[in-house]
Amino acid sequence: MTEALTTVLSDILKVEGIEEAFSCFLVHRSNSETEKISIWQQKISAALRGATQEQLDIALRQYLSVAAGCSHSPLQLLMELLESSVRNGTLGARKVCEFVITSEILQHNNSIFWIECFKLIRKIIDLVEYKGVREIMKGCCEKAKSLPWRLNSGLQPQTQALLEVAEKIMDRNACLLPGYLLVNELQKAYPDCPHWRLAALFSDYVDSFRACAQMVSIVGQAEMRPVVEHSTLPYAPELLEKQTGLLRYVLEQPYSRDMVCGMLGLNKQHKQHCQAIEEQLVELVVLALERTEAEGDEQATQGLWLHLSSQLIYFVLFQFASFPNIVMSLHSRLHGRDLRRGRDQLMWVLLQFISGSIQRNPLSNFLPVLKLYELLFPEQEPPLPVPDFNQPQCTRQMAMTCIWIHLTKKAQAEQANITWPVPSKLRTHHDFLQHLVPPNNAALAMGNDYRIALLCNAYSTNQDYFSKPMAALVDTIQGSPKSASPPTTPLSMAVLDSLTVHSKMSLIHSIVTHVIKLAQAKSGMTLSPALVETYSRLLVYTEIESLGIKGFISQLLPQVYKSHAWGTLYTLLEMFSYRMHHIHPHYRVQLLSHLHSLAAVPQANQTQLHLCVESTALRLITGLGSGDVQPELSRFLAEPKTIVSAESEELNRALVLTLARATHVTGADGSWCHELLATIAQSTPHAWAPHTLECFPRALAEFFTQHAVPKENKQQLKKAVEEENRKWASMNNENDIMAHFGVPGAPPLFLCLLWKIILERIGARALSAHLRKFCDCLVFEFSNSPGGQHVNKCVDTINDMIWKYNIVTIDRLVLCLALRSQEGSEAQVCSFIIQLVLLKATEFRNRVQEFVKDNSPDHWNQTNWHEKHLEFHRQYPEKFAPEEQSSGYHPYFGNVCLRFLPVFDIVVHRFLEIPQVTKSLEILLEHLGCLYKFHDRPVTYLYNTLHYYETKLRDRPPLKRRLVASVLGNLKETLSEPYQTFLGSAPDEVWVPELDYYIQLVRRVVEVLSGSNANSMTDWRFNEFPNAGAHILYTSCVELMALSAGPSAVANGLLDVVAKGFVMIPSEEIHQWINAIGLILAALPVSYWSVLHDRLLSTLSELETWPFDCSPFRLFDFKETHAGLLHNRFSYMLALAHSVWHHAGPGQIASVSRWVRECLPSVVRSEEQFLFVCHSVGPFLPRFSMAIVDLTNALYELLAQVDQAQAEMKYMDPICDLLYHIKYMFIGDSMKKELEAVVRKLRPQLQLRLRFIAHLTIEEVHAS
């Protein structure tokens, strides 16, 4: 083949001598020349036809080599022949172009050859498929690199030839390849332009994608959340910067460890160093030092320092950060700065980590602290005086001396003979601590000062000195053998906060060991109240989680259970119910599983213990956060029986209600819990009344409709009770009675019989089944009652059963009544019974009033809780069985009032479902609402209630107001001033707030989130919320939902804060306000945040015509319109939509796709409208997951509508760039068939641009 080609080339280039001699005088016949070229073309085709790939490479190399040595005319001829070979199919266009562009003989020195080669590429590049075009562009860039940086006039033609090829590739109208791919290639492969001559072309091309980048960027995202790295579009610079501010903000929030690890992809199992965490921990320490310096009062920043020590321990312990790195970085940051006020707090933070880890790590890891000491405690200053040891601050002021003692102890352990002289600055402190150490035989006793804490902190790594002060701490709460009675005063939070983590770990270890020993001894000795209360306080420290809550769930409870120490178990469950805060949902669900197992053992059949187990389980179920339900419970879907009660219908109903509430609040699809519901239906088959099903999310309502349970015939129930009564009357001795009613499987009608004659108790577990029938019997009796005296007699008898004969407790009876599935008038009767049982007799009301009057919910600040608790139980002793003299187990925290709270929650919800009983609910709230002072999550409960029953409560403003006043009666100061004023106004007053109110409310949220108005006095360790941000968000939502204005007015008021009230907002804070509005709206029910969709529709209708003389991309650009004071209606609306959807949950995001599909086709007709839609939804494409297919379909259909409606389209390129972005980032070719059908209907210019999506050829486009 090579020889054949050589012959053809020789023939082409052969010149006769006479022709060469008379070249100036010869005239060539055009026909003859054309004929010759045609023959040569045939010969070249014949020579190359059938050649292998390798042979073609050799032939092309030979062809180009010959061409490179030719003069201008023959070279042009050869290039024309090569072009013809491509066009007639002998050679592939991509093959020729790539071979030419990568050829080593293509050098700018051979100017004619270079120019002709690039001309050839330019002519045939249309025939190359798009991936080949991308490779040719790469080749052009590489060849451009070979051009000198300084171009003389002789090199201009070569440069121009290359430039023309690049221009053709980048020509948007030529559409040789998807521009989205090319811009990606240029940004990744050539971040620096290969030659300055191409710079303008490259810059303009990349710049043309800014419109697409704008459409997929969240407005103000840099101040909300970072963009995913490795972007392919030219995003605004602030979106590509490291989001250090965000990380610092999250790190600064209490209880943020999980979120930080999630953001950075950190896993405790894998030791991975993270420099970002190190840097931001240092930043936060410096910030804390600056705040302490500015405040002048260390107490004002105490909470921040406590939190920082916890964060430092966690991230260093799991090796995400390095302690020496942090200390050295602090040294360099603080050098030359005079920040002295917070130095003791800083040393306290470092002491926390050092005391707990110095024994397991080399001394060299901790020596950098000495450099920091020299910097912050200069020698020229006088020695540090001994602080006042009656004040907790003394532990901070002596922290440096404690560090010194730990370091010298470690140094002696590593190098036996070393002695470090005590620095003169610390000598007074050191001597004072030495004098505190007791002589050999002397014991230590805990006083009201902090000397014991100082000793523990200084000598926790020296057992010779540590055992006595720790023993003093333990004896204070445990009691010594000489103690007359067990101690009741726990260690205060001030004392616990003054102990290092290492000391706290020793203390909690001593407590747990003592409890386990006591349980194993089976001596019947009770735990001291001081020990139990102190233990519960220690469990709030997240830095000792492994010994704390983890040890409680996985070690202590199983050991106590194994030892059958039921009294201790009772106490621990009470502690969990009434004293535990911020327990990770993982542990909650784990304990729930344990409790279901425990409920099945025979010993738990004792009434009081069974009641305690069920009450704890009820609190665990109802206390699960809406966002935690699906992630936590779905881990048990393989074994759902572990979290479903085998026999308690009430607990399973409470679980169903929690599932319904969580599904509703998160907007999730409830189908995930089908298996769980099936297990519940199997364990305890039950039905729900229509008024309850009406409130259920669709998936749950459908499940219970499909799994209907046969209704019990109430007449038959009455007959059965009469029959049992006759049997009872015929029995003469106790054996017959027990044989009939005590056998397993006997009809559960005994309580119904007690309705006639009250007698002895039955087993606690069986009681529940009897209680359900009894409740049904009660409702039937009342429904058919003649009224008046008979009703009074019935209620008095029930009250006797509760208070006189102790057959059933009021909380169990009311819970059972509230959860029966009564319908219609019977449901109202049931509510009436509940009201009478709770309020007609004075027993329960008196207890509530007395308890509320004498007690405070701030248990962590109290020293005498136990005394008040005992006083209440002396005044109102509780019995759990007829003729019982005293309760079997001594409650430490619980009583009938506190036990009733989760039941009251359910009662309120049941009453809300039945509008006819509104008056009864108001009466209940009036008399018992004061109990909510002791609710562990009052704001969350109210938020869930107002959210879940939004449609039921929408037209009942007085009831909403009553709910807020009752549930938040003790926390009114957390609401805004205008709303507090409204609560204090006349009951019939209607308040419709103006814009000013919404501005004030959003300002509160902004100030708290930015840290300028956070309540530093709140101890978040004992609050229902983890931090100030969560607290202000949910209290604001509660307030907004409780307004009588209604969802539409409230949502519009919030949106108008920016849309109309932007003049009141400081310009530099605008994004913080938009972010706050997004957070609030996303946390409100659908009837509120869907108003945003209506506002977007009205904005779209304004865009039907475009009266402006600038591009929509300018007016949709928030930065430009805001900074330039331009028309901002569109950009502000986009920013608000972005903020709401950015904070929205999965269910809310799914609704956006539906909105685009269902509501926009009737509105979108113009190009500007379509671009507004793209700007709205573009940034959230990654979040649509399964809905991306529907959304993409909807966008193409909208584009087809616009294409039909508009004669001219100006912004085809940015629109097509976005569609390619969707293809390459989200859908690939999965929708090829559907999209092809739409693309074929579009105008040719759009078809040409979108042909790589629809896989159309240029011929097909032209044919259309």
Automatic annotation (TrEMBL):
An annotated GO cellular component: mediator complex
Record has Nucleus as a keyword: yes
InterPro entries named among the record's database cross-references: Mediator_Med23
Compartments where located: Nucleus
Name of the featured protein: Mediator of RNA polymerase II transcription subunit 23
Entry keyword Cell inner membrane: no
UniProt GO BP: positive regulation of gene expression; regulation of transcription by RNA polymerase II
Family: Belongs to the Mediator complex subunit 23 family.
Keywords: Nucleus, Transcription, Transcription regulation
Predominant place of localization: nucleus
